[in-house]
Design a protein that fits this description.
This protein has 327 residues and is of the alpha/beta class. 42% of the residues lie in helices and 10% in strands. It is built from ten helices and eight strands. The structure holds zinc ion.
Length: 327
């Protein structure tokens, strides 16, 4: 299949040190650098965790975690609770995870019931006095069936708030600005310079994604996904949500024969070239839709960060796959 994983950018041999007469000189330089690093680390400004502030931030899932790490840098310790690749819609914390949460200085959550299995744990953390930052409190929430270019008939839960806020870099930019302010007021950590830089990079990222997606002719900007995960993306870049294999905001809902028949009729009627499957989508159902309609079935990573841990790579990969398969 053409849609293989991103190729490794490693160049074999590049990292192998060559043996040369200058080896001893290089070793001396390395030792000096190590000494400088050790001096910097014992400078007295770091807390017990190794972070500059000694503060601990716990984030629920991987993609939001990537953004928070980018914002916070060395200023605090950032721990992501859910293992990368697990389904945030149904992941439940262990007793140890709850302990990690209750010991945090700040808990960063997505909200809008994305973390469907964590309700009790959030309550416990709050009772333990942990401050909570809920990302969706600081954005313009998309509601299903609302918004420019959205086909309301594709949604079975019209009016429901959509938790997939990470699919739009400018929505993430709103989260970054709000979190930076909260870090100052609640934790006494000043990340304002890092926030300004990250917000500028997210603005540039949005411009790049728009350029990638503008290569898809307007008439072909139709999305069929595993569950309804690309609403913010569709709203931002002028795509229409035709339907989903699981017609729900959660991967954990059920599909039905009637829904699949209606979806296949829409795919045929609109001439959608590709069906995007994702975490929580039954592969055999996706393959059946592809077989019945002639649409290509393409795997899209919508709920996990790539190997480099970067939000920027994550969302660029999605834009590239959408553009490549719909234009
Ligand atoms: Zn989802």
């Amino acid at each position: 299949m053409a849609h293989s994983e991103t190729k490794s950018h490693q160049s074999p041999g590049a990292i192998r040190p060559r043996r040369s007469s200058r080896a001893s000189v290089r070793q001396a330089i390395l030792l000096a650098a190590a000494a400088l690093l050790a001096a910097a680390c014992t400078g007295g400004s770091t807390g017990p965790s190794g972070a500059a502030s000694g503060k601990s931030i716990v984030v629920t899932y991987s993609i939001l975690g990537a953004v928070v790490k980018d914002l916070v840098g060395p200023e605090a310790t950032v721990t992501v609770l859910m293992p990368n690749g697990s389904d945030p819609h149904d992941w439940a914390p262990s007793a140890k995870d709850i302990e990690t949460m209750t010991k945090a200085d700040l808990l960063v959550e997505n909200g809008l019931n994305l973390e469907g299995g964590m309700g009790d744990a959030f309550t416990q953390a709050e009772r333990a006095g942990v401050k909570r930052f809920i990302a969706s409190d600081h954005i313009t929430v998309r509601h299903v069936g609302a918004g420019e270019g959205i086909d309301a008939s594709a949604d079975q839960l019209a009016g429901a708030p959509d938790p997939h806020l990470w699919m739009d870099p400018l929505t993430i930019r709103d989260v970054v600005a709000a979190l930076a302010a909260e870090l100052t007021t609640d934790l006494g950590i000043d990340v304002s310079a890092r926030a300004t830089d990250l917000e500028a990079r997210l603005t540039a990222l949005n411009d790049r994604l728009r350029a990638i997606l503008n290569t898809v002719p307007p008439a072909q900007r139709s999305l069929v996904t595993g569950h309804e995960s690309l609403g913010y993306f569709a709203q931002r870049y002028g795509f229409k949500l035709v339907g989903a294999i699981i017609p729900s905001l959660s991967s954990q809902a059920e599909s039905s024969a009637a829904n699949l028949a209606a979806l296949e009729a829409k795919v045929r009627a609109t001439g959608v070239k590709a069906v995007f499957t994702e975490l929580g989508t039954d592969p055999s159902v996706a393959q059946a839709v592809g077989r019945d309609t002639g649409a290509e079935v393409v795997q899209l990573t919508t709920h996990a960060v790539p190997a480099d841990g970067s939000y920027f790579t994550f969302v660029t990969n999605i834009a590239n796959l959408v553009a490549e398969n719909l234009k």
